[in-house]
Amino acid sequence: MDETPTSIANDVTALPENEPTLSRLPRIPLAQQVADGIVEAVASGVIRPGERVTDSDIARKLGVSRNPVREAMKILEAQGIIVSNPHRGSHVVAFDQTKVKQIAGARVAIERIAFGEAATAYAGDPSLVRELDRIIEAMEEAARRNDLNEITKADLAFHGAVCLASRNEVILTLWETIARHMRISFNLEIREDTALPTDIPRHHRALRDVLVRGDRGEVEREIENHILRLQRLPKRQALG
């Protein structure tokens, strides 16, 4: 006798042992999506550091209600990207040299551990290396187009992938906490970099090669030099 059709959930329970199944995709809360949208607007120059922002204006531009925008602005305020004043409203903070230097210092502390702990994984897992190669290729393609915004997206993806490969949950949490700051500071810093856009993928390919060699001490020294490279260049008083 034919079986009666069942739900997908029931079908999964009836699958043979070790049969591959589809995993549910993570659902990102709308407020988090809005927060990312605001950060992207700042990174791309649509919203300038120091500019006043309102929930009504952002809601209108993003096509969402004001409630998730208010939640997103609270998230960004807690993360130090937006500051609110009862008399002046809400503003994106100024990403001046002090703030960018603080972000770089936090990155050194986090990424020295992340890259050091990920070195063994990259030395023994070619699939992880292929993921870095894919990101670098996207970075190189963006560099050929002189697309600075896409270069910085790939840059952030590269460092995020290594943090994930470290399998250190505490480090990954700390990384995600400052990732939005980095998305903005990367776009501001790249405008200050005197190197050609094609040099940025080259720096990351060098990092990739160090990771593959698996020497933790070498990896930690290389990532610190990589992060602080731009800090050693002459800068204007404020970015953005």
Précis, in short:
This protein has 240 residues and is mainly alpha-helical. It contains ten helices and three strands; from the N terminus they run ααβααββαααααα. It folds into two domains: 30-92, Winged helix-like DNA-binding domain superfamily/Winged helix DNA-binding domain (Arc Repressor Mutant, subunit A), CATH 1.10.10; 97-232, Up-down Bundle (Four Helix Bundle (Hemerythrin (Met), subunit A)).
Distance between the termini: 71 Å
Q: What is the correct CATH architecture of the largest domain? A: Up-down Bundle
Q: Which word captures the global form?
A: globular
Low-confidence stretches are: 1-16, 234-240
Our count of helices gives 10
Percent in helix:
55-70%
The helix/strand class is mainly alpha
Largest sheet: 3 strands, antiparallel
The overall pLDDT average reads 84
Going across the biggest sheet, name each strand in turn: 1-3-2
How many independent structural domains? 2
What are the secondary-structure elements, in order, as H or E?
HHEHHEEHHHHHH
Radius of gyration: 21 Å
Q: Give the CATH H-level superfamily of the largest domain.
A: GntR ligand-binding domain-like
How many strands?
A: 3
In the CATH scheme, the class of the largest domain would be Mainly Alpha
CATH topology of the largest domain: Four Helix Bundle (Hemerythrin (Met), subunit A)
Portion in beta strands: under 5%
Key descriptive features of the protein:
240 residues, Arc Repressor Mutant, subunit A, Four Helix Bundle (Hemerythrin (Met), subunit A), globular, disordered N terminus, disordered C terminus
